[in-house]
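Re: beginner question about structure tokens

> Can someone show what the tokenized structure looks like for a real chain? I only ever see the sequence side.

Sure, here's an example I had lying around. Input first:
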Amino acid sequence: MSTSTSAPALPAAPTTPAGKLHHQVVIIGGGSGGLTVAARLRRAAASVDAAVIEPSETHYYQPLWTLVGGGVGTVADTARPESSLIPSGTTWVRDAVARFVPEESLVVTRDGRAISYDFLVVAPGIQLDWGRVEGLPEALDTPEVTSNWSRDHVEKTWRLVSGFRGGTALFTFPATPIKCPGAAQKIAYLADDTFRRNGVRDRSRIVYAAAGPTIFGVEKYARTLDRVVARKGIEALYRHNLVEVRATEREAVLEQLDTGERVVVPYDLLHVAPPQGAPDVVRQSPLASEAGWVDVDKHTLQHVRFPNVFSLGDASSLPTSKTGAAIRGQAPVLVENLLAAIAGRPLTAHYDGYTACPLVTGYGKLVLAEFVYDGIPKETFPFDQSKERWSMYQLKRHGLPALYWQGMLKGRA
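And the corresponding structure tokens:
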């Protein structure tokens, strides 16, 4: 991964025609990807006229929601005002994009404003498609169903886990790409620890139903996780996708993806990782790939059809795990290539697919999976990261949040 060391000479920001809104660089999304790009761009080239379009007033560090669901911390601990994170000198447009018009280098916001740009960075995150599982939206309002992907339910997860008195606890992983994919199994491991601590594990069945073929896509780490599943006595059902929740009967309907068979699992606690996909505004736009993601070159992060458009993060077509660590690897490449494009130079920065999944396997235990494209491990520390470690758990709990707030979102890391 190459990073910029000095700001290139840049043209002055264009004059805004009367009655129109224009910015040299428009960034869609004030989440991890958009803010990290905005901060790095401001530090590398303060003269660039940049705007961030983001409707939310509050920004959440969602990687900690796994621990919040396990009783470690609260949602409030993960929140910061969005206004405090917009880099100085960057315009915050408190709105959402309703339409992309890349042929005219233009976006239209929900309130009807047309904003033109010289360059566009698309980082709106991912869409949670609760309705793709029949009965799930209604089931979330029942006492037995929850999800750590929902800000409004993550603390409910801990109430259900800590108050569990036996029966079947079912944890699911969908047949779509999702953000923080390891989180679907992490909460099952924390639940097992809690059930044991509360003396109810011997009358509890823990089921992990995942649409994928294995516990994890990188073999080095999957070997460890298979041992964790066996040690904890978790029943793993692979190639099983949640398709319906019958809340009144407390039944989950799983589809066996190889045979099409429907399997009904009665539950006393159901934790769902919902199906996810590109936001509708992206999927229905000229920017989308056939699968609906922003269609970019996997190394330069430049759009394959619109050269003044770049993308990173969960909404992009980049074939890597959708995590904050991936954004940390993508943002320096994107900013260097964006500045090169502004200056009319070749794009030379290269993203290798780096991502990381801090896999909590219990309280005080974590496997830090780090890898690049094709699932090739690329580890940071001089020891075998496939082993469960107390030190890596502390990194997850304390070190990575500090790195996020003070490093990534400030453009320093």
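Each token stands for a local structural state, so reading them left to right follows the chain. Residues 1-19 have pLDDT under 50 and may be disordered.
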